[in-house]
Structure prediction request, 190 residues.
Amino acid sequence: PQALFDTRYPAPGSPELAQQLAELLAPVDVKLDQEWGLDHGSWGVLIRMYPDADIPVVQLSIDGTKPAAWHFEMGQKLAALRDQGVMIVASGNVVHNLRKVRWDGNSEVYPWASSFEQFVRDNLAVQSNAASHPLVNFMDHPGAALSNPTPEHYLPLLYVLGARQQDETISIPIDGMEMGAISMLSVQVG
Prediction:
């Protein structure tokens, strides 16, 4: 919608943090860009938390061509930033199928969507490596392909789970399904 393009969130960047992030993710070739601007997935969350845009923000793009385990492992590498007080915000939806959205006001949730969201809930606290974590292997769930026809809205969750420290608590501050096929499930670690 045009409102997404019209919204401005002028948070300052942090070239130093961006450089540190690139070093943490090596040997992945991270290209630094000061012209791109923030995606609505980034500012859409931050504008509610920091409406004055008075915190430095560094945005990391997701490489949707990489397997899920790779994203979990990137989260593990980013965990060091949390020890420095850097908040990692991973914005997406665990269920995001715009092709199946009920635009007519009928908000009845599709069975595959509720089943997949429950699968995510049931496995959030699992502490495992990237190869065996059920949420890394999310495509094994029968509702995964319908819940996530493309992976870019699901994969951010894997960064947060990868950055989670041993026995750190997980909570769900926001919940619910919209239009039958969009999960609003929010996960907070720590």
In short: The chain has a mean pLDDT of 93.
